[in-house]
Amino acid sequence: MEGIVMTKRVVFIVCLLSLVIASVYGAAAAPSAFKKAQADIIGKMGEIPKPSRAYRIGALEITLANPFWVTMKDGYVAAAKDFGFKVDVLAAPSESDTAGQLNFLETMVDKKYDALCVSPITPFNLIPGVEKATRKNVPVICVGTWLDEEAAKEAGAKVAALYSSDFEGQGYLGAKYIVDQLKKVGGGKVAIIEGLPGASQGEARKAGALKAFKESSAIKVVSTQPGNWDRNTALNITTNLIQAHPDLKGIFCANDTMALAAVEALKAVGKKAQVIVVGVDYIPEANASMKAKELDASVAQSPYLFGYVGAVAALKSLENSPLPKGISIPIALVSQSNLDQYIDWK
Predict the structure, then answer these.
(1) Span 59-80, mean pLDDT?
(2) pTM summary value
């Protein structure tokens, strides 16, 4: 009996000491959601070879006027630094300048980059430039957005790999958040502010949002209009929406730039508390707006990992290393209630 008592006492003391040590020195922090996503994606890329020579890789984004693409640029630059090659990142002046983006790509092909990473504004606008790269045996990686497969094949434009995300899932996730919140008040009228007509990510997000809204009989979609990724356009759309539908309860926007404009328009007429607004991209300004209890939620994807993975894929292509397929950049719903879990997301 005495032995049993002594054993219990020892166990108690060990547990007590463990608690004291943990309180003094701190327990090891669990990896953040971003760190987990980063480790998972890099692991799926497989072995990453050292450059056999001094490579120059060109990356063409949609526009650096949007913080999303600035963070993607950071990902390209980080990968180049980590693995020892040079990268130049260019972009069109605006998210709708399809001709300007093509001009950049054709110039980049002429500058004889060893490989190119591209994010087309639409599935068609960069096909002539990719065809030109194909003729010159320059490997092309599509990052985020993609080329129309049939049109590219017909033109002879070849892509070595595509690394993207579940854009339809983003739309569904964002709209489902609105549906779940409105269930608490019996449903209501909602609207969608789309991206640029024809843009692959915008069309997919719209489809996903409509799917989520149509799953609930308590939700009525009263409007879906293109905001062209533009803040002023989205602001005007929202202003007109709330005049036409003063009992509007929710707006899903295909990116955060437009969602923040919707918030601004609703605040101007004292209606923000009535309307749930959700965007996509989780840019820094969206984070700040959620902290201020204004924007309700944003669907996060990782522009940093887009750029990082694209650059790594370009290197692997140049070194004839197998390019993994089926990799999707992760997404997550970030709201005012779980904001602290995504503090380092990029």
Answers:
(1) 96
(2) 0.83
